Amino acid sequence: MSTTFTLDTSTSRANPTPAPMKRLTVPAIQRRKFEGKTQQPLVMLTAYTARQAQLLDPHCDMLLVGDSLGQVIYGLPSTLPVTLDMMIAHGAAVVRGSYHSVVLVDMPFGSYEASPQQAFASASRVMAETGCAGVKLEGGVAMAETIAFLSQRGIPVMAHIGLTPQAVNALGGYGARGKSQEEHAKIISDARAVAQAGAFSMVIEGVMEDIAIAVTDSVDVPVIGIGASAHCDGQVLVAEDMLGMFERVPRFVKRYENIAETIEKAAARYADDVRNRHFPTEDQVYRPKK
Fold first, then answer.
1. Which of 5, 39, 103, 267 shows the greatest Cβ crowding within 10 Å of its Cβ?
2. In sequence order, what are the beta bridge partners of 204?
3. H/E element holding 43?
4. What is the pLDDT at residue 10?
């Protein structure tokens, strides 16, 4: 038995309750790719809160506490200002709100690039303070030594290659990568390097489709696409993009709902009721029993 946290939606309070150990594991994710192929693609979405995790968890194999929370939750212009403390706080909430998915937490900019030792100090803190199953970090060949260092010390690592948002200033923007032969070759080399270093899986983001196909076919670990190809071993999206929380979304996003419109309409109805004294009614106030 393990202890998880169930959010009582009637009170919005998280209560610890014993639950059978049902959570997927990193080795189980790895085994989904057998002899170079994944029969059923892996499903991954971002999650940043306990309640969001509860709703997404039954449908996902992995939940990513992405540093995209900087933009999605905090309104920051990029992921660069995100801190380790922010990632840990949201990572712990997502672990508490889930029981099935493998929860992975992004390593924020500046928390791992200096050395393998710095990366281990940051990653071990993330693992200890959140209870997550592993971490994700950006970079290919340059991060191979760090990935090996972490993997050999019991920290599962998901790599991230292709368009790497933390390097947006060096890349010159968020455009698709791999349009030149040199960049094509670099991404393939990055994929092979992180796989050989011990990454249990990798995200490939914002690349020309032929590169995503080539990467998926050339490594033995699951390749999760975002703006890549349906040929990948799985897919990930920022949940808020998929749900339609923002007016503008990247080309590679498919909207499955328009939650922003639903929220706006509900807020407008609430405001109208308050201004016209139609809320609260006797159903929402406390009165002595007769």
1. 103
2. 161, 225
3. strand 42-46
4. 56
Cα–Cα distance measured from residue 81 to residue 71, given in angstroms and rounded to the nearest whole number: 10
CA 142 to chain centre: 22
Quick one: pLDDT at residue 271? 98
Q: How many CA atoms lie within 13 A of 173 on its CB side?
A: 3
Beta bridge partners of residue 13, listed in sequence order: 8
The predicted pLDDT at position 1 comes to 31
CB 70: neighbour CB atoms within 10 A? 23
pLDDT, position 17: 52
d(C-alpha 204, C-alpha 213), whole Å: 10
Amino acid at 84: L
**Do the strands 201-205 and 62-65 form a parallel or antiparallel pair, or are they unpaired?**
unpaired
Low-confidence ranges of the chain (pLDDT < 70): 1-21, 172-174
pLDDT score of 290: 77
228: left (phi over 0), alpha (psi -120 to 50) or beta: alpha
Determine the Cα–Cα distance for residues 115 and 122; give it in Å rounded to an integer: 11
Given the residues 145, 205, 261, 282, the one annotated as active site = 205
12-34 in b/e form (b: 16+ CB < 10 A) is eebeeeeeeeebbebeebeebbe
Please give the backbone phi and psi of residue 98, each rounded to the nearest 5 degrees, phi first: -130, 160
Q: Which residue in 127, 137, 138, 57 sits closest to 88, CA to CA?
A: 127
pTM: 0.91
Provide the 8-state DSSP code for 177.
B
- Between CA 249 and CA 256, with CA 255 as vertex, the angle to 5 degrees is 160
Alpha carbons 136 and 106: distance in angstroms, whole number? 5
Cis? peptide before 280, omega within 30° of 0: yes
